[in-house]
Amino acid sequence: MESNWLTPIPRLTHLIGQSLFNVIVTTLNSGGMALVIWGIFGFEFNFEKIGAAILTALPMLVAIYGFGFGFAALVMLIREANTLIDTGNFILNNLSGANFPITVLPRFLTVISLSIPLTYGYDAVRGLLLGTKTILPIRTSQLILVIFMFVMIAFGVLVFKWLERRCRRLGTIGMH
User: Fold this and answer.
1) Number of H helices and number of E strands within the chain?
2) Within a 10 A sphere around the Cβ of 34, how many other Cβ atoms?
3) What is the pTM of this model?
4) Which of 8, 55, 137, 160 could be stapled to 69 by a disulfide with Cβ–Cβ 3.0 to 4.6 Å?
5) Are 5 and 176 in contact (CB under 8 A)?
């Protein structure tokens, strides 16, 4: 990790480049798997629904990357990536409705779930692709995702730059 953080390019540029590369690789892998599944099982694709789901998922993805920028800065500060990432992943997956609908959560956790962009993204994409009942109308969820996209990117970049300056002052950037 030190070699990445100690390069002469701005760290934010490095994060954006890694993020874009990961999106491309994931898209190619998912597309390849979709073709394999289609070849084996012969599913019919509804490209209108898939297109709507992709357009819904894009602002969610950007919002999560904004969150990730802030999270990367926290890793830079705390210097314990594995524990932080595992804990954060567990909490986000369980609170965002990745494994079960958030309606089964206690009310105080549901309120927290509604502050996470993934919740609206998962719910809207399921509603579009599977026709499930959604928490909010799909258009409302999409609007919330677009708002989250701008807020989370701005917030993530601000937190990253602030914590990067702090780590430089403390001299801890190379201590991972």
Assistant:
1) 7, 0
2) 13
3) 0.78
4) 160
5) yes
